[in-house]
Amino acid sequence: MPATKPPDRILGANLLFTLDQAVAHLNHGSHGAVPTPVQRAQQRLRDEMESSPDRFFTLGLTDRLAHARNHLGAAFGIEPDGAALVPNATTAASIVLHSLQLQAGDEIVTTNHGYGGVAIAVARACRDAGAVHRVVQLPLSPTDAAVVDAVRGALSSRTRLVIVDRITSATARLMPAAEVAEAVRPAGVPVLVDAAHVPGNRPGEAPVGDFWVGNLHKWAFAPRGTALFAVASAWRPRIRPLVVSWQEPVGFPWSLEWTGTDDYTSWLAAPVGLFALRSIGADTVRDHNVRLAAYGQQVLAEALGVRPADLPAPGGELPMRLLPLPDGLVRDHDSAARLRARLADDLSTEVAIMPFEGQGYLRISAQVYNRAPEYERLAERLPGFLARLQRE
After folding, report:
1. Are the beta carbons of 236 and 252 closer than 8 angstroms?
2. Would you say 35 and 217 are in contact if contact means Cβ atoms under 8 Å apart?
3. How far apart are CA 244 and CA 23, in angstroms?
4. CB 285 within 8 A of CB 200
5. Is residue 322 part of a domain?
6. 58-92 tens-digit pLDDT
7. Rounded to 5 degrees, what angle do the CA atoms 2, 5, 11 make?
């Protein structure tokens, strides 16, 4: 048994969720899980909306949205009206790209650790404008200094934006976003920090950069489709929404939030998610999840014969960890999706499969509804499962 011990269970925490008990849900980082009290709060709002749509949308909805937004923003040290509610981090990235109004020859700098959906958005924006997408190549476990130096070295007089993840999805790594923002400030280049995994994971950490977006539906227990998009004051007048609505003349944040007859109940119920997290204790949840993910990684590594020195370093205390998979099993996102589906079907276990620079990795997450035996059972069955796949 690994030297690291699993944390004590948080009694009753698993009862807050309606997850299928026949499945080991070890992939909270992808889609989250909404606690029952939050589900019920959103359903009450939907019932209210459907009981009188005209009244719901025309009497006080904007005030309720502003209250929810500012309540959520205050939890992250964001000034009133300093952030907008958006569906997710990828949406915020597209808004920033749209607002830059790129010209031919302009450049955008990202890293190879960035989220795939954002990379696709950058590629399209550059293709449409004739701009250049510079991808900084970093190893799987770079030092903070190496990240800062590499991004700074990629800047030129044509750089219009730097995008850096705070917690990477594909590589489950904590990146020095604040240090990157500070390093590029002398060049006058704005920085977008993709902090999709930060809310609920980094209690007390305030937004940095000119643009910052954090998903609340991953680790902060909000309904899906809820993210905070903070924008520096100098940039707010320049933000251009992807959808033009009646609130366009009002400007940020209303021009982003109001898209007409939409379902705003996820945003209105999001404060209940923060209340649920605080009720358990944000630090308690974080400590539990970090320790359980580390335990799960060690159990699986031992079962797969992976030496501790060969485990990717997370670069910080995170509730997501990686395990290298045998060579050849995962080459791209399509093969990763097929392997993930096979694991779900054959082992009743949900995990993430991540390709990075031609190598496949199994990414586990830990949340308060998880238990050590779930990782132990996967460790018992995974070696044989992978061996069968390699013979096919």
Report:
1. yes
2. no
3. 42
4. yes
5. yes
6. 999 999 999 999 999 999 999 999 999 999 999 99
7. 145
